[in-house]
Amino acid sequence: MSYVFLSIVLVIVALVLLYLHNHYSYWARRGIPQEDPIYGFGNMKGIGREFHFRDLNSRLYERFKRSASPLGGIYTFFQRGAFIVDLDLIKHILIKDFSSFHDRGIFSNVRDEPLTGHLLRLEGEQWRAMRNKLTPVFTSGKMKFMFPTVVAVAENLSRACGEFRTEFEVRELTARYTTDVIGTCAFGIECNSLSDPNAEFRNYGRLIFGKPRHSQLVQALILFNPKMARRLRCKLFNDEVSEFFINAVRSTVEYRVQNKVKRNDFMDMLIEMMAEDQEAASKRDGIDLSQGLTLLQMAAQAFVFFAAGFHTSSTTMSFCLYELAMNQDIQDKLREEILRVLSAHNNIVTYEAVNEMTYLEQV
């Protein structure tokens, strides 16, 4: 009996090893260079502990660039991936053949967590439908409408800086600034983070990134196997975060519609889009109103506008200010350009003036 059991175990082990060998030789069998993977880890061993994703990307890029191949094969744990190094191939994927490559393989679970139903996470027909709806919103002309809001909040930033008498944390200050800017544009709400570091929007902004819903193990599952995570009905954010942002959108939409309030911001554009969908549906028999923009879809778009915008922008600003502090000559040159351009615009910060600051964009 023991021999039978041992034989079964050996057969199972052999089959598993055969499967892993077949899986981790996928690219090599197709003549595409790959970095030797480790069973179970792929090329990810040490990630997050010994080195950062940046180090991994740099190593893989140098490895595949030397091979003169337009791409290389990688394995993120059990998932296969293509690492593209040829510029022309990148352009094909991102532009010419984009219709075949728009899915990002990122987790979304609209059924259980509506806030994940935004353009960054949606796939397939859901992504295509949402992209068609939102494309008119992100034209340069539409973005220009929001610029006065950015300037108004910048004046609050200037006043906040004037109140400091000792050392202060720049990263926190820029996060409060971008929270006010994007919170105002995306939700139409005066967040007041610059005057109150513990303002409601700022606290929930901290929760998004600072208080994850799951352990690192579950986060890894969601990141590297989004399909399984979706089947398990996983969620990304704490319920209080989802409820706060959905309620913020709901109350803003209801107030503006009932009181006919117009502010020329992102929320206005979404409300107009929802009204147009409803009007078009009412004029055509048999049209399902659910095909129009829903309030939960609006909440998802406003949420990603906020979450992706305030964190990335404030981090970039913090690093930029640090580099300017460490390089006085660059700081002086940049300040000279800003003053020169503003003097040509009556010392008023306008959309056109900022676009003329080429050195600022380079910095």
UniProtKB/TrEMBL annotation:
UniProt main location, coarse: endoplasmic reticulum
GO CC term (a single one): endoplasmic reticulum membrane
Molecular functions per Gene Ontology: heme binding; iron ion binding; monooxygenase activity; oxidoreductase activity, acting on paired donors, with incorporation or reduction of molecular oxygen
Keywords associated with the record: Endoplasmic reticulum, Heme, Iron, Membrane, Metal-binding, Microsome, Monooxygenase, Oxidoreductase
Cofactor entry: heme
One Pfam match: p450
Subcellular location: Endoplasmic reticulum membrane; Microsome membrane
Annotated membrane topology: Peripheral membrane protein
Organism domain of life: Eukaryota
Record family assignment: Belongs to the cytochrome P450 family.
PANTHER family: CYTOCHROME P450, CYTOCHROME P450 6A16, ISOFORM B-RELATED
Protein name per its UniProtKB record: Putative cytochrome P450 6a14
Species of origin: Ceratitis capitata (Mediterranean fruit fly)
